[in-house]
Amino acid sequence: MKITKQALENAAEAQIISHQQATALYAYLTSQAQHSPAFTFTHVLYYVGGLIAIGAMTLFMNLGWEAFGGAGIVFISVLYAMAGLTLTHYFSNKGLTIPAGICATFVVCLTPLAIYGFQLWLGVWPDDTEYRSYHRYIKWHWLYMELGTLAVGTVLAWKYKYPFMLMPIAVTLWYMTMDIAAMLSGGDSTWELRKLVSMYTGLLMIGLACWIDLRTRSNADFAFWIYIFGVIAFWCGLSFQYSESELSKFIYFCINVLMIGFGVLLGRRVFVIFGALGSCGYLGYLASDVFKNSWLFPIVLTAIGLGVISLGVLWQKHETRITQWARAKLPTLIQERLKQRG
Asked: I need a surface site. Which of 169, 181, 234, 326 has the fewest CB within 10 A?
């Protein structure tokens, strides 16, 4: 629930709190919200600017930088990193935690470029692949860049403790498992192997995110980005699996429904979003393939849809009691963490 100024004023009008308390409470909540990610114009500008800068040095890197040679790439990367760390300290000292975290993340994202340039400089780069292919293709020799990124990212995340810094670490973990699969399979991993690796990597990342969630005692959400990429990796690997068995497809649907329930229980919307996408995909498959010429299927599906709406009404009515009952069945540590998250 979002607490607005109008809601506090309404509470004051109802004599639940005084007008003075409403004003003071709103000022306090507003000051606290400045340090937490939210969908405000200021925060959108922060993240858009940060992602543009990060994208310039990662996804949108072109061949022009190859002209600098290995030593030039290392030198420029170090200059960029020094500027990023300087801005991190500057924003941190000003109490601007979000731009500070974005600048620190920018430094982590520079790491693979610097390692690539260093390998070119030493003459140990194994082929003629350019850096811009790092985010597009799976190759075993990206592993040096990925291991270095994990090392730098872990050290900087431990030092600065900004949740956004976990984003490049999560992406790198996903990349690394794909490249390890390519290495173990002789350099050319099949599509089937990639799907399986993605699915199991996603499960491991979800497990890691849950562990971080339970271990974290601060208000900062350090597990957020691990959950995001863990769910994406797992869901994509699962969804691209191919099977002729109707039972397997139904199990896929059940897994997506469980993801929705799991997301509601943990308060993690990413599970709900991808679970809903998978569930809708399965229903679309039934409509277009299994019951293609059936006049009864749309009627049944409509009834199911109305039933889900009715379930939503009942859930809203009894949400507190059901949630308390469900969470009471969980281990104490998980209950405490969920209470902190509200």
From this structure: 326
| Residue 151 covered by a domain | yes
**DSSP letters of 245-269?**
-HHHHHHHHHHHHHHHHHHHHHT-H
Residue 61 pLDDT exceeds 70:
no
Task: Give the C-alpha separation, 282 to 289, whole Å.
Answer: 10
**Using CA atoms, how far apart are residues 229 and 227, in angstroms rounded to an integer?**
6
Which helix (H) or strand (E) covers residue 72, if one does?
helix 69-93
Is residue 290 assigned to a domain? no
**What are the tens digits of pLDDT across the range 261-274?**
888 777 788 888 88
Does residue 337 lie within any of the structural domains? no
Query: How many independent structural domains does the chain possess?
Result: 1
Q: At what angle do helices 191-215 and 224-239 cross, to 10 degrees?
A: 150
Tens of pLDDT, residues 202-216:
899 999 888 888 777
Contact 130, 61 (CB under 8 A): no
Residues 310-322 have a mean pLDDT of: 71
Give the pair of three-digit tokens for residue 228.
Answer: 């995001």
Query: For residues 67, 71, 74 and 80, what is the CA-based torsion angle, rounded to 10 degrees?
Result: -70
Rounded Cα distance between 204 and 19, Å, is 50
**88 assigned to some structural domain:** yes
Q: Which residues lie closer than 8 Å to 109 by C-beta, 6 or more apart?
A: 54, 57, 58, 168
3-class SS of residue 13: helix
Domain that holds residue 110: 42-164
Specify the range with the lowest mean pLDDT, choosing from 133-142, 162-171, 207-216, 309-318.
Answer: 309-318
C-alpha to C-alpha distance for 335 and 192, rounded to whole angstroms: 39
Q: Please tell me the distance from the alpha carbon of residue 105 to that of residue 159, in angstroms, as a whole number.
A: 12
Which of 84-98, 133-147, 217-231, 260-274 has maximum average pLDDT? 84-98
